[in-house]
Amino acid sequence: MGAIVQTRKSTKDIAELKDQDLIRMYYYLKLTRQFEDRLRVLYRQGRFPGSVYLSTGQEAIPVGCGFALEPRDAVAPSHRDLALHFIRGLTPREILAQYMGKKTGPTRGKDGNIHFGNMKTNTLGFISSMAAGMPVALGAALAFKMRGEDRVAAVFFGDGAASTGTAHESLNFAAVFRLPVIFVCNNNQYAYSVPVEKQMAIRDIAERAKGYGFPGVVVDGNDVLAVYRACREAVGRARGGGGPTLLECKTMRMSGHGEHDSAFYVPSEKFAEWKRRDPVDRFER
Amino acid sequence: MVDRDKIQEIVNEINKVIDDAIAYAESSPYPDPAEVQEGVYA
Predict the structure, then answer these.
(1) What does the DSSP assignment read for A57-104?
(2) Which residues pair with A155 in a beta bridge?
(3) CATH of the structural domain A4-284, one choice from 3.40.50.970, 2.40.30.10, 2.60.40.1840, 3.40.50.300
(4) How high is the ipTM of this complex?
(5) For residue A49, with 0-12 CB atoms within 10 Å meaning exposed, 13-18 middle and 19 or more buried, which class applies?
(6) Mind telling me how many Å the CA of B13 is from chain A's nearest CA?
(7) What's residue A47's pLDDT?
(8) In this complex, do A97 and B24 lie within 8 Å of one another by their Cβ atoms?
């Protein structure tokens, strides 16, 4: 048996979401999209140093999971999860100050990029080395379990990170200790320039969970409500003592790895195909 | 649930938030070089 493939069949399974919640979801999808569109322009105008790593096309994952988790839960976002920071209360002012290396940013000017967390909002800082955030999230989950706290941890990473030894060790550790953790993999088809089919011989990354002894779930990562539902189930399982879940969100990175990368290696048909599944447009419809 | 007018209202509101954020960030000070080692442990 492979991974569980989960789809959202109707809005009945997300009935706990009120109209106001759905409008807030839409707001965060649009805020992230519009903010990053402006970030791209500012970068190209040379108005801040360094590079910029966007989540365009992947916004449904941090938004869906952000709504499925409670503020008391710990999150370890990746560089494609800006929406999680917004949902947890970081403001566009603070994020832009961060990019511009200003004192008013979360790292007070010590980093000009996305390497920041916020302990007040239970957001663990992002570590650039692939999968390095996973053991940190496991530490949080282990602490919650040892203290008997009703909290879970969720760690976000990409398909490239999923291929590292750290990821495999983390999945195994979480399984052995039955930790309340959700592994959220944004399978965006490319690890920098390497297409996913050239870095693994399986169709679904979620299949790997079975080898470690816990559920792996494949979900349409461009459907915010499907992501919400799948993450909500995983959170419920973790809170109930059911241990970890590997949630593979199928999506597409709609630009280069960073804005310095033209993504010349991605066939234009692939971009066109995924553009039709744009998460913001779909939710709007 | 929402019509085109409401969507446009949200878009406009977000644009204002972003304009404000750019102005705020650009007018914010750079850190004092004397603080460079604050919070650095290794």
Answers:
(1) T-THHHHHHHHHS-TTSEEE--TT-HHHHHHTT--HHHHHHHHTT-TT
(2) A76, A183
(3) 3.40.50.970
(4) 0.94
(5) exposed
(6) 9
(7) 94
(8) yes
Per the annotation, the verdict on A253 as an active-site residue is yes
Would you list the domain boundaries of chain A?
Answer: 4-284
pLDDT over threshold 90, residue B39 = no
Based on the residue annotation, tell me whether A27 is a catalytic residue of this protein.
no
Across the interface, do B18 and A47 touch by the CB < 8 Å criterion?
A: no
A115 is catalytic: no
Quick one: pLDDT at residue A7? 66
pLDDT of B2 reads 83
Arithmetic mean of pLDDT, A238-258? 97
Contact between residue A47 and residue A269 where contact means Cβ atoms under 8 Å apart: no
A50 touches chain B (CB under 8 A): no
Give the gap in angstroms from C-alpha A101 to the nearest C-alpha of chain B.
7
